[in-house]
Amino acid sequence: VFIILTTAHDPLTVSIGFSILAGITTWSAIPALSEIFVKAGLKGMDLSKKTKHIIPESMGMVAGLIYLVTMFMFIPFPFMKWFTASNDGDLQELKLLTFPNLKLAELLSALLSIQSMVFLGFADDVLDIRWRFKMPLPAIASIPLLMVYWVHLGVTHIVVPIPLRPILGQLIDLGALYYVYMGMVAIFCTHSINIMAGINGVEVGQSLVIACSIAINDMIFLQSVSSGAPAIETHLFSLYFILPFIGVSLGLMIHNWYPSKVFIGDTYCYFAGMTFAVVGILAHYSKTLLLFFIPQIFNFLLSAPQLFRLVPCPRHRVPRYNRQTNLMEPSRVVLDEEDDLEIEFSSTRQESKRALGRSASSVSLSSTEAGATTQDSNESHRESDNPQPSTTTTSSFFQDFRPLKNSKLKRSGWYCVKILEALGLTHVRYDTKTGNRPLEMTNLTILNLILVKAGPMSERNLTISVMVVQFCCSLVAFFIRHRLVAFVYDV
Ligand code: UD1
Ligand code: MG
């Protein structure tokens, strides 16, 4: 690495050297800092292990800080030719005239936005900020970036796909709406990684697949574009940000992989999401970026009924760990209480007790907004996920689609449950007496869906499955971006 750094003449080679250094530093710093984090109260309980042990949390802070230090040290390199210009008077003047001030502003504003998100993520880990407050913050953190975008690029039009051109013309100028869209991209990228989380290695795993896809996409462009084209600059810029990110993520992944020795915390999720948003916005390929987020978009749409409280959303939606089998199973959320009559009619005393226990646990499950954020509430969620009783029946979609009057679910929630069930995206357990009053359903996340479809599996295999899904979606994204695109755009 030292040889690369001392002999390299181009910034990309320096960036590769810095990224390797950043990865090694992250890998070696984490074990050294683990105890300090635990002493400072930055720790969490691994929910999916036989013995509940506490491990350091927010280790994304270490990765984020090393990333920022690396990037700060890298700042002079893309501008090296202006530094090394002779002190000759004419050249000095030329330097002042040609120095790309806006490029430097882009680099600095991008780092400011990423740094703000590392800070916010850490605050979230420490203070457990409520969703309604933390939701818009990435858009605010991206304002410095959008400001530089406005001054430098200012492109707010989108190219209309060929089939729609007779109606809409070749270009549509979105004006201010384009900035709103970019703010939304920042919000989406950060939060979507944070909600596809909760099992060892899954957050870093998905981020690494996305980051590698971005890097490969940049390299494809660098190979195909003729030298001197503006696209070269933007894709190089993207690589300068992504390569050190891959470095620190690999260093972190070694410790976060199953069985995790450290948790990455919200700090890493926000840091990763903002890094992706930054390169997507400044390198002007936010649509391609979103193609690499297909699993996260799907997970967000699937989660929407819970996120927008159409159906209850527990504090933790991660799959349930079964101590007996050592496998992960889909976790469930209580939608309604078991019918009292059913408890009365239960043939054995033991069955009544089980039904009552499940009713009581539903209170803690739907208390996210009431601030149920402690590990105790995680535990009550765990306890409620008892294996299904043998009396379970499943109503068919067409059996009765009218919401029941005595159901605790809102009408909109009822329709959501029925539609998601019909699409095979959740498994619903119904009241045995009426046969069509939904009592429980599997939580609406891609992790639970994989388990509903493929059956129980180990935590490690579930993380690998998510990474395989992410990888396959990246292949689809490449196919759309580099093959199908010719049918809808002039390339
Ligand atoms: C988000 C999800 C929540 C999920 C949680 C898991 C939404 C709306 N929120 O909440 O459903 O349960 O992430 O991170 O979808 N943990 C493990 N093993 C791991 C990683 C985390 O057990 O490999 C547990 C630990 O107890 C850790 C906690 O998850 O302390 C971290 O949760 P946190 O990041 O604070 O949850 P949110 O991001 O708020
Ligand atoms: Mg989180």
Low-confidence stretches: 341-395
Number of strands: 9
* Count of helical stretches: 22
Major beta sheet, specifics?
3 strands, antiparallel
The neighbouring-strand order within the major sheet is: 7-9-8
Cα-based radius of gyration, to the nearest Å? 25 Å
Structural class: mainly alpha
Mean pLDDT equals: 84
**Span from first to last CA?**
39 Å
What would you call the shape? globular
Share of residues in strands: 5-15%
Which small molecules are bound?
Answer: uridine-diphosphate-N-acetylglucosamine, magnesium ion
Describe this structure in words.
By secondary structure, the protein is mainly alpha-helical. The chain is built from 22 helices and nine strands. It has helices spanning 2-7, 11-39, 60-74, 80-83, 89-98, 101-127, 131-134, 137-141, 143-152, 165-168, 176-194, 202-224, 230-256, 265-282, 286-291, 294-307, 340-345, 349-365, 375-384, 411-422, 446-454, 459-488; strands at 43-45, 54-56, 157-159, 171-173, 320-322, 327-329, 332-334, 428-430, 438-442. The chain has a three-stranded antiparallel β-sheet. The protein is globular and about 90 Å long. The chain starts with a helix and ends with a helix. The model is unreliable at 341-395 (pLDDT under 50). The structure holds uridine-diphosphate-N-acetylglucosamine and magnesium ion (MG). Uridine-diphosphate-N-acetylglucosamine binds next to strand 1. The chain crosses the membrane at residues 16-38, 59-79, 139-164, 176-196, 208-225, 237-255, 267-285, 291-311. It is a multi-pass membrane protein. Pathway: Protein modification; protein glycosylation.
